[in-house]
Design a protein that fits this description.
Elements (H helix, E strand, L loop, with lengths): L1 E6 L7 E6 L2 H26 L15 H20 L7 H19 L10 H4 L14 H7 L1
Helix pairs in contact: 1-2, 1-3, 2-3
């Protein structure tokens, strides 16, 4: 890693050593982040399916989906704490990072919307229906006078 010194306090001497991340390290962390988002999506699908594999029709009291959700939560906590290890000062912050990892990633993913492709028939907007004037019959006109 390449280290360089940065003065973060203009007008004073506050020098900080900054270590730049290599491109392949950033790529690996990006790969871990992509895997983490996939794990959160799969974990959510398993929980919503009643702790069974979502691709199976009937659940059979299997304990493996529950263990999978637990292991994924632990893996996500480890990934987030490892990613922030340069900014963490002790075990308590690392523990808190691990506790909030799944909720944090779920919150980041909540802003992502996946829209299925539309066909040409549904891609054209429908013509708006304009309100038609109400017609009065002869009796209503006489009563209005």
């Amino acid at each position: 890693m390449d280290a360089f010194v940065v003065n973060i306090c203009p007008g004073r001497d506050c020098r900080v050593n900054v270590v730049a991340m290599q491109w392949w390290q950033a790529g690996l962390w990006g790969l871990a982040g992509g895997g983490a988002s996939g794990l959160v999506s799969l974990m959510t699908a398993i929980v919503n399916a009643g702790y069974r594999w979502p691709w199976r029709k009937k659940g059979s009291g299997d304990f493996r989906p529950r263990l999978f959700v637990l292991a994924c939560g632990m893996l996500l906590g480890a990934l987030v704490a490892a990613a922030a290890s340069a900014q963490i000062s002790g075990p308590w912050p690392a523990f808190i990072f691990g506790v909030g990892a799944t909720a944090t990633i779920r919150g980041v993913l909540s802003g992502v919307e996946i829209v299925p492709p539309t066909s040409e028939a549904t891609a054209t907007p429908a013509r708006p229906r304009l309100p038609q004037p109400r017609r009065r019959n002869l009796r209503e006109e006489e009563e209005a006078r």
